[in-house]
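Reopening this ticket.

The earlier resolution said the output was attached, but the attachment link was broken on my side. Pasting everything inline this time so it's all in one place.
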Amino acid sequence: MSSAKLNTAIKMLESLPDNVQERVVDHLRDYIEDLRDEMNWDQTFDKTRKQLTRLAKESKKEIKAGRSKLLNVKQL
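Inline output:
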């Protein structure tokens, strides 16, 4: 983001009463944490995509060959 856009956002925030500024900052902090978590998930998923694809193909082959059975969730 450009400095100009960030400065505009800061000026907008500064124009609010202090208690509202605190609420906005709390929301931004939560939002940024969520974004970081999502980015970490995306990176992790990208690193394991080939393995997951291989495992899915193996599973399909086992199902087609009759070497698998349905999972009974009640038995877990």
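Reporter confirms the inline version is readable. The mean pLDDT is 93. The CA atoms of residues 36 and 42 lie 10 Å apart.
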